[in-house]
Each structure stands twice: as C-alpha cells, then as structure tokens.
Amino acid sequence: MKKLVLIMAGLMLIGGNALAQDKEALKAQKEAQKEAEKTVKKALTIYETSIPNAQYGRKETDFEKLATALPLIESMTQNEYTKDNMVTWKTAADISQEFYKKLEAEFKADPDNEQLKKKYVEDGKMLTIYCVKYDSLLNLNPKVKPEEKNKDHQKYQVMGVNPAIQLLMAAQTYSNSENQDELKKGAEYADFFINVIEKTHLMSDFKNDNLADWKTYARAFRAQSYFHLEGTPEETIVAAYKDLMTTKYKSNAYQSLVNYYRDRDKDKQTQYLLEGLEALKDDPEAKDARGNFAFILMQNYFRAKDKENFKKIAEIIKADFADNDNAVNAYLMEGEWAFEEKDFQTAKNIFLAAKEKFPSDDKCLLMAARCAWMQAQNNGSKKADMDEAIQLYKRLEAEYPDDPDQWGEALYILYNNTQQMQLAAPYKKYYKPSK
Predict the structure, then answer these.
(1) CATH class of 342-435
(2) For position 325, what pLDDT does the model report?
C-alpha cells in the first residue's frame, strides 16, 4: 500500500508541473498576442498621424515618419496572432498606398529609370496583395454592415486594380525579353494578374470594357514567357498554351506547340497540327496558319512514307489552299511519290496538272519531261513516248531559253536515240559524257 501511495504522489507531482507549464505557455501566448496587437495599433497610429489632415494642419504625408510603420505592419502580416486580423491588412494596404502614390509620381517624372520602374511594379504587387487579403477578411466578417463592406470593397478594389494593370504591362515587356530573369518575372506577373482578376473576391464584380482583352493578353504573355524560359516543365508550357486555345490567340497557341515539339516529339507535333487544322477551320483569319499546318503535315507524312495520310493532307491542300503559293508542293510531292514508285504516267499527269495551275513554277514542267523520258525508257523507247518527251523538253527550252541545264543535254540524247542527228547537233555542246 505504501508503494502505491508513493506512485500516486509522483503522478500528482508530474500533473502539477504540467499544469504549471501550460499556464506559463498560455500566459506567454497571451502576452505575445497582446504585443502583436499593440504593434498593429502602433503602425495604425503612425499612419493616421502621418497622412494629410486638415484638422491638425498636415497638408502633406510625412513619409519619414510613415516609414517607421512599414517594418512594423509588414512583420504583423506574418505574425500568427495578427495575420488573420482585418485591421492588419487594412493598415498594410493604406500605408502601402501612400508610398505607392509617391513612387508613381517619381516614376512618371523619370519613366526611363529602370530601377525605379522595377520598384514601382514590385511595390504595386504588394499593394494589390494587401488589398486582396483585406477584402477577403472584410467579406467574411459578419459584424461589418453591408453598406460599410460595399464602400470599402469598392475603395480597395480601385487601389488594387491599378497596380495590377501595371503588372500586366510589365508582363508584356518581360515576355519579349531574352533575359531569363525577366522572362521568369513575365510569367510570374501574368499569372498573378490572372489569379487576382479571376480568383479573388476583390475583383469578383470588377467591370471594365477591356477586361476580357486584359485576361487574354495575360494568358498570352504567360505562355510566351514560359516558352522561352529555360527549364520550364513541358506540362506547364502545354497548359499555358491550351489556356489560350479558347481565345482569339488560338492559332498562335497551336503554332507555338507545333514549334515546341518540332525537334522534341514528332508524334505530339502531328497531334497539334491535326488539332489546329480542325479547330481553326471556321476562322477566316487563321487560314494562313491552317495552310502552314497542312504543309508541315504533308512534309512529315512524306518523309515518314505514310502514303495514306499524305494523300489525305495533299487533297485538303488542293481543295482548301489552292490559291496559296505553296500549294504547288502538294502536286510536286505527290508526283514525286508516284515517280519513286515508278508510276511515271501518273507522275507525269500530276506534274502537268500542276503546271496548268502554277504556270510560273519551273519544276512542274521539268519533272513532267523527266517522267515522260523515264516512261519511254520503260516502254522500250517507243517513238510516241520518245516524241512526247522531246516535246516536253522543247517546251522547257522555249520557256527557259537561258537555262540549258534543264533541257540541253536531254534533247541531245533524245534526238540521238531517235536517230534525228541533225536535230541533235545544236545540243551537242550541252552533252556531258559520263567518265
């Protein structure tokens, strides 16, 4: 029994010590909370006694005095006891706004000062963050009357949106930079703008005639920054451009992904070429982009010896892009495919059809003449076939008299092979005997 009593006494001693420690900890927490709230109040007092106030005869902000409040309020936005306090963020926004207005005036007076510009943008970002946080806490506070909420909501919305627009402008500049640090900032600022405009209560009812364009621009600047920023994960780049595919820049989005995968992954490049070809078909302004996609697809299929898909794309080009200067390549490559398969008759007809549609392209007639010659050789050099080859080379001579490399040697050989020595004689000088 004695041993049991001793054990119980020991437990009571331990329990008593723990309770004392808890009381001390609770006391320390209360003191820390009290000190944090006092710091917020001190920063607010400094703010209120620094800004212009006719009652006290202050016509201008005392920035030297106000500067002492900055480190106080900035630390309290991170403090566990005051970081969810509405007054903390309101005070931070108000103080930040005073310095931002001063910085804005300095920047307007010296717009070429790059260091000043960077500070203007970065400080503006912090101001927007303060406004967003204050507004979110204000919105959740049931003690504030609706009319007071709306009044402050509108006030801090204006305070937050103006520097956000400056961030958008900076994002545009940096997205065109070759400097990696600036590209990183371009993506950061554009992403920040999108999140503020689309995902915060502060901007939930914001209206502006240019708002839709601003959001689109931000997406474009973000995607462009990521595209050129070294080390950006593939999925980040793809997601950024997919986000553009529902905007007026969708053709740029597909084109960028096509370029991105050109030397990385031919299958994925083909995927976006096909998707772009379909997605842009009803957009007259994207006709050139679609044409480019079709030509790339045709070349890829030709090199991959994918005849079925090659012919499908070639037909699309002939039908949808017949007026494009590059459309002749659909005929030339299709004819070349038939030529390589030794179907010289088909190849010749394709090249002649191309010549009719694209009379200024010299390759069409030259390839048709070569096909006719090869066809004649395959058919045992029948006179009719040889004569057709001669006629086509004579057409080449008539159209390109200053380019005998296209027709000179060929006509000499053809006339000789058909026993027309007199006709062959003028072309002998172009003949180059094989060594």
Answers:
(1) mainly alpha
(2) 75
